[in-house]
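User: My advisor, Dr. K., asked me to get a structural model of this assembly before our group meeting. I'm new to this, so sorry if the format is off. These are the inputs:
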Amino acid sequence: MEIIKSKDNKTIKYISKLIKSSKFRKEENSFVVEGVRMCEEALKNNAVIEYLVYSVSSFDKHTDIIKRLTDKAFSTYCVEDRIFCALSDTKTPQGVLCVVKTLDKQAHFDTIKKNGILLALDNIQDPTNLGTILRSADALGISGVILSSDCCDVYSPKVTRGSMGAIFRMPFYITKDLPAFIASFNEHGTSYACVLDDAATKISEVKFTAPVLSVIGNEGNGISFDVINACNKKLYIPMYNNAESLNAAVAASIIMWEMSK
Amino acid sequence: MEIIKSKDNKTIKYISKLIKSSKFRKEENSFVVEGVRMCEEALKNNAVIEYLVYSVSSFDKHTDIIKRLTDKAFSTYCVEDRIFCALSDTKTPQGVLCVVKTLDKQAHFDTIKKNGILLALDNIQDPTNLGTILRSADALGISGVILSSDCCDVYSPKVTRGSMGAIFRMPFYITKDLPAFIASFNEHGTSYACVLDDAATKISEVKFTAPVLSVIGNEGNGISFDVINACNKKLYIPMYNNAESLNAAVAASIIMWEMSK
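Assistant: The format is fine. Below is the predicted structure of the whole assembly, which you can bring to the meeting.
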């Protein structure tokens, strides 16, 4: 196999743009996952792997996974270490990355068990929070995550890495109209808006029964007015010490924990 | 007041070093908090403010807090905007920062209610996690947080910012010998090691009664052998989907939630 030695190579430039630009990811319906663990998750979960890229020196260390990825990927490229380092989103790259097709939204929607336990996210902006929320949702057995379309890009490197592979395992669905989604959910389930308002019901007093959906809002501004109004009920997590709020990923995780246990 | 116009100014260099170097913070027993909110917390919680630094253009926007901080700070410096930007740890600085004395460890230890609900952290490495854990501990009414001395620096800008001011409100104590601390705690309370081992007791089956302490371990390796052995009991958070673990801040928050409710 020829080794790519120039950062001006067309494929390298294409991948670099996919890593950096959310707009480009949307246009191409592709995203990049990096590192042995994430590539392994892509394989395990039957993701469509367009390109495999590995660095010269990674081959000896990660021979097995590189071989298995090569079998699955449409195209495979070996690049000089310095090219990989320049491309990589991490400080100490492992030398393996894949370009993966984004999951078809409709198909992903169909995998969500609508009679289960859902989490909806309204305008979550921090990719670290979004990654952590997906990771928690996966670990806590949530049926699916609904994202308003103004959430940060679920396919950004920070989100996928923070999700620890949950991006591949967790059914999620991006909706342009979260209030309408909730209204339709209310026909057979109960929806809760998580608010910072002690006039709402304390979460410890709520008896969650599926189908159930809880909404977590934006880090600074909480849930938007229309989304709160679409929900059947409001709940809050009691807090001490005049703390204004919990981190959004922590609040989401406590709610998922209470919904799922 | 004279306006500092050079980044080679002695005070500017001193503060820059405090922001960047954990070692220097330890030597000086001082740290830096930035932004209106954090400086307000320093004031509210009677922190010892050595220096106040604000940028020329921030004065009109934040006159009130700058005046109140000036009253409290030993020295106040006004600096050109570009100097503040170069100094700042954030992308869009508000133009206000304080150099604050670290909290005296023994005095802080004395503020911890040893008969309450404690969280111990064994070698937590990610400053974002540590900041979030302090924020959650504060919001969930935890009595105190014990840190092993190999945790990341609690006075780093990422931790203090992530704590949303909890660094000032939350009693915490750094110990060189966490197993000994736990052994001494066991004389009047019950200690739990949070492990990834489903042979341990499920957290939902534990009835927490104060004095109680739970330990959360390192992001990659969990709790060290000596610390697990020092604890009375082991508990685990049940997980689905073969997820290997929750994020450390999420796991800590779920445990604090269960201990405190």
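One thing worth pointing out at the meeting: Chain A touches chain B at residues 128, 132, 135-136, 138-141, 162, 164, 166, 169, 204, 239-241, 243-247, 249-250, 253-254, 257, 261 (CB under 8 Å).

User: Perfect, thanks a lot.
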